[in-house]
Structures
1.
Amino acid sequence: MELRACLIGFGKVGRSFASLLIKNKKILEKINVEFKVVCIYTRKYRLFNDKGIELDKAIFSLDNLGERFDDINDIMATKNIDFLMDFSVSSFTNGEPGYSLIKCALNNGINVITVSKAPLALHFRELIELAKKRNKILRYQGTVMSGTPAVNLKEILPSLVVDKIRGILNGTTNFILTKMEEGFTFEDALFEAKKLGYAEEDPSIDIKGIDSAAKLVILANTYFDENYSLENVKISGIESISKGQVDEATKNKSRIKLIASVEKDNLIVQPKMLKDDDIFFNIIGINNCVEFDTQYGRILLSGPGAGALNTAYGAFSDLILSIKQIFNR
């Protein structure tokens, strides 16, 4: 069975996803699926190849790998696309371009897998309901904790009732705070995070707590079946945390962590001083951790929360689950 996909965005995450497709080709072959990427859409390139774009070449350069096109909406409407893989960087003001692209895909009968947080943080219920209306798949594991199944956990625990969610949901800020404990200044820790690929050139979304808030909204809506948006979250970031505050916390056998939590309509992201008996005390570096308070007790998930490959794996795992769902395999 041939499945055709369009990739939106082909930066570090998009290229990492392409690498995973190449390396894991046998997994798809085992379930009798030929997965072709026929379209790649970026700011610079708008590329279509009906026979499939050669991903081993695309990872290095998109030149001369297909035909140029003007309108991505026309491609989705006329080229028999089965999956939209959304790796776009979308605005936290309006969710664009991901918001419109996801809607266009669903309205054209195309399944969607996205790692873009902004469209879901701002328009979660609308997009989920549209997917249901069109009887299409919308998966988004890669939006929260990358490949660690914070979102997809719900599928294997269908009767779970969650009362509270608390977590460290941003790898960049956790890395910076860890480095500050090691003696780095805030500025030097941020520079190190950029050098290692854990922070963007403009890291304000992470530093100001917006990224954590977006992930909190997505988790809260997923597990509480609500319609929260970013405007419902009280947000404080780590931009005002000084080296002196970190040193004082260390002296008192404590650590400062950026904690996201939701309970009874109270969604909060803020730095908190944690004692060494707190379960998040030993979550260091780029690692994330989320705790679910449920009727069966507390469930804890921990794993890497930053890095292109980890995020790409979240999308790849969603793809495999989607294919199994479509073909009942």
2.
Amino acid sequence: MNLEEYRKNKAKCITWKNIKPIYDAVQEAKTVEIDNINLELDDWVSITTQSDISKEDHKKIYDACKMLIPWRKGPFKLFDIKLDTEWQSNIKYNLIRPYFDLKDKIVADIGCNNGYYMFRMLEDKPKRLTGFDPSPLTMLQFDFLNYFAKTPIIYEQLGVEHLDFYEHKFDFIFMLGVLYHRPDPIGTLKTLRNALNKNGEILIDTFMIDGEDEVCLTPSGRYSKIPNIFFIPTINALKNWVSRAGFIDIEILETTVTTSQEQRKTDWSFDQSLEDFLDPNDPTKTVEGYPAPKRVYLKAKKKN
């Protein structure tokens, strides 16, 4: 595959009918010039300034924020604007934070959305930090935020399937909330392995079901109203997938049940969220009757 040609074609997404007005709003906001920017990498990724912002410039920034709805991953503070996103992604980041050290490493975040986790990862001072996500909307969200933050993060409108053709390999790959969207999970994990340097590591999370058997749930249609969910394994089945894909030193880091503290409706997101995806009479089940969303976090090393 010629990635440069693919990138050129993908860049044309800004001309799509549903994307062009959003792109134009972001470009208008990027005419605003603000000095003395400060980037704070905390639960709220905050971009602040000591300088005064005119009413006209503030309106351009606020209008772009509104056009970029839904904001799913965050939260962010952009000057005095609080982007209270659907997902409180700080909860997940703080959960996995003790399990990695990215200093001087070449790092990828597969399915990076608008880059929230990558902004947080900057605190480790990685050598290179690259996000992969084909979504035009999340790319524009990142482009908008990074115009003010001015970080060296690289954002690629590519998916995990493009790693085999990418220009270099990585020391550490995150893939959070992606594996259950892939119809060939072992093949996807092999792609991660092939994209790693010697002794490279992955940290992933995925939906899981309880049980000791080496089996997985295959939803007949949607799962928790989410389309394109293919396989939801037990932990033992997941460990088998990871092992068969060529990884060793497999560690189960955490398991969590998704709650409304972590995922909920806000003024900056969709008009439906977790509470609408669960059975109103039994929150341990999805509206389709499957077990409610539960996640497992796993870390593993490439078998050299």
3.
Amino acid sequence: MKKTFSLKDPAKADQRVIEAIKNDVRKYAKRERRKPLPEGFDLWELQCRVGPEAALSEGRPFKEVAPAIDAVAAAGGATVYVEIVAVAAKWPARLQRTEDGIQATEVPLTPGAGVDN
């Protein structure tokens, strides 16, 4: 998703427009995460950029997209640019203490099946 949203709509209150934008972003993220993963990957990583326009957008983690939209609106911007690209990724390695020192192991995908440190 690479889209510039208008923050002003004469027929709606500004807060309702902002909430609608955030809802569209959440729906898009949910839709992207439902897509089947390529072989050998564990999750979809969402690479996000938010700003008043495409040239001024900054990279952010997905959980900071909604506050960034609020910040652009609070600064008085007329538009907000949101870019979200889903990239297949693997779980990060987890550090585990062994007799030989610290060693990286893969994170198990099932909840509650973690490796003790």
4.
Amino acid sequence: MGTAAGPARAAASSAHAPSAASPLGGSFDAGASAAAGKTAGLAAVPLPSGQSVIFTASLSLRTRNVQATVGRATQLAESAGGYVSGEHARVVQAGQHATPMVDIQFKVPAAAYQPTLTALGGLGTKRSETQRAQDVTGTVADVNSREASAEAAIAQLRKLLTRTGSVGGQDQINQEEASLEALQSQQRALARETAYATISLTVARTVPAPAQHRHGAGFLHGLTAGWHALRTAVTWLLTLAGAALPFLIPAGLAALAAIAGRRWWLGRRRAGGSPAAE
């Protein structure tokens, strides 16, 4: 969980990040972190003695003014003794609206983590929040033990090299020193991660509510409504007529054929009955 380089603003803020080159002592300096929290007016939360925990959180907010909210969030983190470790602005298309969003990551002293997270959550409408606490006390103790053992082994090898002066002894010392440097690097990374919690904040602009059309009253409104109803009725009637027309044409032709046939039959019947009457 090393800190990643962010944009220009993050790079400027990272200049205030404290160095964590000192070896781990099982946990971070809670006194210094508590002092930072009290300076910001936030109540510091002490950790159990000797415990090393990595705190991470993700928070998503909606607000009317994204940039103003990001500015207030940055002030909160910096007043608690933290800094900006990364920031990314983007625009998300939601339907017909373009929604600006800012993803920003803070590093804050672990003792001020919880009150800072609570204060950040009050800057807008909370959409989601997740928290994670990873206990790395065993990992820290293991790295410290291996680092101490490596230093002791190098000291013993140097004594042997002084007495024997063999080239092979120097090669072994070089290998042990490389292993020691790797352990010290891991030690510094754990020191940073346990001393400073990581809060990832996403701020999005509130989506505007759909416009509601007000219905008026009076003669003009009634005339408009009646005209609209008339147009709707005529449209429906024309639609029905258009749908029925393909069926009416064959039916009309059949009716005409039936009428013509009946007249022809009646004419023949009359013609056949006239001689008999004579």
